[in-house]
Design brief:
Elements: H1 3-25, H2 35-66, H3 72-94, H4 96-122, H5 125-149, H6 155-177, H7 181-209
Helix pairs in contact: 1-2, 2-3, 2-4, 2-6, 2-7, 3-4, 4-5, 5-6, 6-7
Length: about 210
């Protein structure tokens, strides 16, 4: 998909999510004109942007790496920077130590994903299976870490969210690898929609846990 078109889709979905929030998807504020509601909307918007970057740059890396593009290294670095950005956002509410811990876990998530792409390109099934197992273990660890930080985030729901993120990304990787472009587009839509759902769940949990900040 053309990058400009892709970002057009992303912006439309983000705006659509915010409009949905204003129509009643928020945590119960009296209206969008209140200072509290504006702060909540900002959190939803910023969180969605972070996780939109996550799936966008993951896709960019998969395409460039499988295609042997010279941009693969730059895409990987930008993807890793996104994990730092997510960790910094979390640190706003949970402190620098927690933010750094999440950044480390998310960077592990990305480095393993890079291994998976490399193994898939080389058709090395042994390395692919090993990386996939570690990827799933890492996802479970991330879910446990988040659940321990916020009682409003169910560990079971988080584990389901993370494992679904992996499975939808695997479907996207498979479609790109096989050059099945229509399926690749559909797969990305699924990846993106799911990540926006997860992003909103995280935002809602933060608002519920820290009402004094909104």
């Amino acid at each position: 998909m053309d990058n400009k078109l892709l970002w057009g889709v992303i912006i439309a979905l983000i705006v659509g999510g915010i409009v949905g929030y204003l129509m009643g998807a928020g945590s119960g504020s009296s209206g969008p004109d209140t200072e509290s509601a504006q702060k909540e909307i900002a959190l939803y918007k910023d969180m969605r942007k972070l996780w939109a970057d996550h799936v966008f740059w993951t896709r960019e890396y998969i395409i460039s790496a499988l295609g042997g593009s010279a941009s693969a290294d730059a895409d990987a670095k930008r993807l890793l920077k996104n994990q730092e950005d997510i960790g910094a956002a979390v640190a706003t509410y949970y402190g620098d130590t927690a933010g750094d811990q999440l950044t480390t876990l998310l960077k592990e998530h990305i480095t393993i994903a890079v291994e998976i792409v490399t193994a898939a390109k080389a058709n090395d099934q042994t390395k692919l299976q090993d990386a996939n197992k570690r990827w799933k273990d890492n996802a479970t660890t991330i879910a446990s870490f988040l659940a321990a930080a916020n009682p409003n985030w169910s560990k079971g729901d988080l584990e389901t969210m993370m494992q679904t993120h992996l499975s939808t990304t695997e479907q996207e990787l498979d479609a790109i690898f096989k050059k099945d472009h229509p399926r690749s587009v559909t797969a990305f839509d699924n990846v993106f929609d799911h990540m926006m759902t997860m992003s909103d769940m995280l935002s809602e949990g933060i608002i519920t846990q820290f009402p004094d900040k909104f």
